[in-house]
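Quick note —
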Amino acid sequence: MTIKSLREQYLDKGFISAIDIVSSETARQHRIALETAESQIGSLHYISKVHTILQSPFELATNPALLNVVEACIGHDLLLYNVTYIIKEPHSKSYVSWHQDLTYWGFDSDDQISVWLALSPTTEQSGCMKMIPCSHREGRVEHSLKNDKNNVLFSGQTISEVDESTALSCELNPGQASFHHGWTKHSSLPNRSDDRRIGLNIQYIAPHVKQVKQAGDSAMLVRGKDRYQYYETDIGADADLDPQAMKYHAMLQLRYEEIARAK
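Predicted structure written out below.
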């Protein structure tokens, strides 16, 4: 599929899926890097800005093949906003409720894209993402906050009424990625497989997108130019778990949580 056709499909349906980014062997090596880090500091599930403390997610988030697709979808100038591992353990009850990514991030524009890069087999059995085609055209819809310990989402944000009969499953092999618009409705079910379901969730925004909830948010230019300078500059990891980077990362994590909680 050409870059042009990927863009057309993204604009039409609100997502594209099963795009080859790295080989399965490369994905396996990145999984090893993740699990090596976890053996040292514990679970990295749903920790924001991991690219500032680990080389592997930074390398994947700046992969040229991946950035080419992102550029086709939202333009040449690209800021890397966040990188997060989302992990469902085998036979866990963890799920992701129906939601839209942009609901609580505080951006003044939807020139944003979410990437989900598989580091393990991502199937219906393991709880792959499900998307509602063309739902991005509706814009923002009402969400409610539901307190459920098994919901992966930080705030438990949930869309109550979704026609699930129209949903499409985004199954991915290790090394493949899906890309979706910030208003595309999506969810995922629990992992019923015998393996961990590991994905790297990466968020990109165009430089003109402003954070309106809180001053002092951060991002990193990864392609083109930033003519606006709205964000403090994140620094990609050049070593794993550097003590100074870890200290700074703790502040970044707290700030991300404050933004997500703010009304």
